[in-house]
Amino acid sequence: MSLFHRSTSYRSTRDTAAGISRRQLLAGMAVSAGGFSLLGSSLARASGQTAMGPLPPLPAWHDPKASHPLLGSILVAEGNRRLSPSALVDWSQTHPLVLLGEHHDNPDHHQLERWLIEALATRKRLGGVALEMLDTTQDAALSLANRTSLAVAGLPDEELKQLLAWDARWAFTDYAPLVRSTLDSGVPLSAASLSVTQVQDVMAPGQAALALPEAVLRLQREALDEGHCGLLPPERLDAMLRGQLARDKQMAERLDALAANDSTALLVCGNGHARRDIGVPRWLEGKALSVALMPVAWDDNGQPLTRLKDYLPESAGAAPAYDLVWFTPARTPLKEACAGLREASEISAS
């Protein structure tokens, strides 16, 4: 199955309930042809790698009626070229480190993450997987799980959840399939994040932020503010900035630790962390590929946005914020999420 064989019918300009506007898209990112397939193949040959066996079938979208001109497309941010899913795997094989930036509430993102994990495992190129959803308090549990991965992978959801001491803030059903795929492959599953206590220590009053260029700090700050619907007071925003930078640095260290010769390690994280200009890649020692899983969007008049620049955030440097963008169906528009957040904030303040 190919993403390019999915329905390409256009959505009515008035039917935007399942989509989001450009403004909502760029804010939401904060929370968190033919011949181009030859590009990936040539890169794989140049690195001495050859494809081995067929790739797993691509998953169907959760919404079978999802439609948009860009849906399923994989675009190279520099040059706006297209890649096939197979070429994406080829290109991933030429990098020791790959970051997959998701929208945490998008089930299609979780399915594509699992697909890439299984595709690299099929090619015998998967070196390990680090998850933002796992933190340092789970290191001991992960050590046991990795030593007995084949047996652990077959446990019922509730038992596997308990074994991993899974954090209830993340829906286990969203990530269980890719956790199982990683354990089935026999490669290390790693915690990428700091613990809640470690983040709270960094956010405590009097702590200094990491020294970074002003453009990086400004964009990080703006992303955090937009991701929290402009509801954070300045002092809270400063604290969250320190926490975000510390988490980026920790994720980089954990991903670098999985790097090995002739294999590719993956980090699954929010797409803000996956940004080349302000996120985890700034702290990495190894060569990395940043892939944004991107919900398609419509403008305020209900017309589909079809230019890559409509989706890319302002970058702190000359290069785009991501290397590749893989377009998926959209989920809840940000304005609805912000309305719920404001309501919750008002209730807690009353």
Topology of helices and strands:
Layout: H1 22-28, H2 37-46, E1 74-76, E2 81-83, H3 85-93, E3 97-102, H4 107-122, E4 126-135, H5 139-147, H6 149-153, H7 157-163, H8 172-185, E5 189-193, H9 196-203, H10 214-227, H11 234-258, E6 264-270, E7 288-295, E8 324-328, H12 334-349
Parallel strand pairs: 3-6, 3-7, 4-5, 4-6, 7-8
Antiparallel strand pairs: 1-2, 1-8
Helix pairs in contact: 2-3, 4-8, 9-11, 10-11
InterPro entries: Cofac_haem-bd_dom, TAT_signal
Organism: Cobetia crustatorum
Keywords: Lipoprotein
Count of separate DSSP helical elements: 12
- Termini gap: 53 Å
> Quick one: overall form?
globular
Q: Roughly how much helix do the residues carry, as a percent range?
A: 40-55%
Kindly provide the name of the CATH class of the domain at 73-127 and 207-295 and 310-349: Alpha Beta
Looking at the overall shape, the CATH architecture of the domain at 73-127 and 207-295 and 310-349 is 3-Layer(aba) Sandwich
Q: What is the oligomeric state here? A: single chain
Order of helices and strands: HHEEHEHEHHHHEHHHEEEH
Structural class: alpha/beta
Mean pLDDT, as a whole number? Answer: 84
> What's the gyration radius in Å?
20 Å
Strand order of the largest sheet: 2-1-8-7-3-6-4-5
How many strands?
8
pLDDT under 50 segments (min length 5)? 1-19, 22-50
Residues in β-strands, percent: 5-15%
Examine the coordinates and then state which fold CATH places here, giving the name of the CATH topology of the domain at 73-127 and 207-295 and 310-349. Answer: Rossmann fold
Keywords: Lipoprotein
Domain Haem-binding uptake Tiki superfamily ChaN: 93-284
Pfam family, one: Cofac_haem_bdg
Protein name: ChaN family lipoprotein
